[in-house]
Specification:
CATH class: Alpha Beta
Number of strands: 12
Number of domains: 1
Helix content: 25-40%
CATH architecture: 4-Layer Sandwich
Low-confidence stretches: none
Mean pLDDT: 96
Shape: globular
Strand order of the largest sheet: 3-2-1-11-12
Largest sheet: 5 strands, mixed
């Protein structure tokens, strides 16, 4: 019963179907892990949501920033779609509410002790152990699953606070936790999140480090699968050194959609969109 972890799909249903065929995925036997951002920028967000939801317990997906943005568009009347959003197919679907109620029940962080892997969309702050990450994820999940999720969704946007403090409360605490799980890439040496730099390691400013390279990271020792960072291009040797497995290979931007078999390390990829969004 292999488990295949899959990078950011972002509405690329054709690529996802091709990747499942290439891995030999059997929905009656195998399991899938998704790094989040099932939707947005691509052409068939509705099809992706329907497919992943149909897999039931065979599929685990963590929430990404684009997934949360879709939920916010549904629940926050004053929020307007972004110029490059492609989410109307979901928002206008007859099964919209069923799909979005399912989506907001998804976790922000997943850990499987037996497999020795954790799954997150973006990253983990240097201060958090795996146990702490699970606890903080539950805080946001409770707000998302509340009777009125708008109380959280309409206040989650923003870059501050950018540094973790256990004393954070209310909206600020939930916003930091959400940003850490779904938006972080680089950090300053003391752990402050940087939201401006998106390029790969070769061209990043020298004062910044990828979140997984910060010294003293409390989550070291557990292998972490993540997406969100299509420009990272970390090679296998570097990834093994830090215990991380980045799987966003830019399917929606003309790259590939990638999968990793957790049990034996096999990797698979298929072409992404032939014409990336402008």
């Amino acid at each position: 019963m292999p488990t295949f972890a899959i990078g950011d799909v972002q509405g690329c249903l054709g690529s996802l179907e091709a990747l499942l065929e290439k891995t030999g995925f059997d929905a009656n036997r195998d399991h899938l892990w998704f790094t989040g951002d099932l939707v947005n920028r691509g052409p068939d967000n509705l099809g992706v949501l329907r497919l992943v939801r149909s897999l039931g317990d065979r599929a685990v997906t963590v929430l990404g920033n684009h997934d949360l943005h879709l939920l916010a568009l549904r629940h926050c009347p004053e929020l307007k779609p972004g110029r490059r959003d492609t989410l109307d197919d979901v928002l206008q679907a007859p099964d919209r509410d069923v799909l979005l109620d399912w989506l907001r029940q998804r976790p922000l962080f997943h850990h499987d002790a037996a497999l020795g892997f954790s799954l997150v969309h973006a990253g983990l702050p240097v201060e958090w152990s795996i146990g702490e990450a699970l606890a903080h994820a539950r805080e946001v999940q409770a707000a998302l699953r509340a009777e009125d999720p708008a109380k959280f969704l309409c206040t989650m946007y923003g870059n501050k606070p950018a540094r973790w403090r256990a004393s954070l409360t209310g909206e600020k605490r939930l916003r930091y936790i959400t940003n850490a799980f779904t938006r972080m890439r680089y950090c300053h040496a003391e752990g402050q999140l940087d939201f401006e730099t998106k390029e790969g390691l070769d061209t990043a400013p020298g004062e910044l480090l990828p979140w997984f390279m910060l010294p003293g990271r409390a989550s070291q020792g557990t292998r972490v699968i993540f997406g969100h960072w299509s420009t990272l291009r970390l090679d296998a040797t570097q990834g093994a050194k830090f215990g991380v497995y980045p799987l966003d290979t830019g399917a929606v931007w003309g790259g590939t959609l990638s999968a990793l078999c957790l049990e034996d390390g096999r990797r698979f990829s298929v072409p992404g969109l032939a014409q990336p969004p402008s």
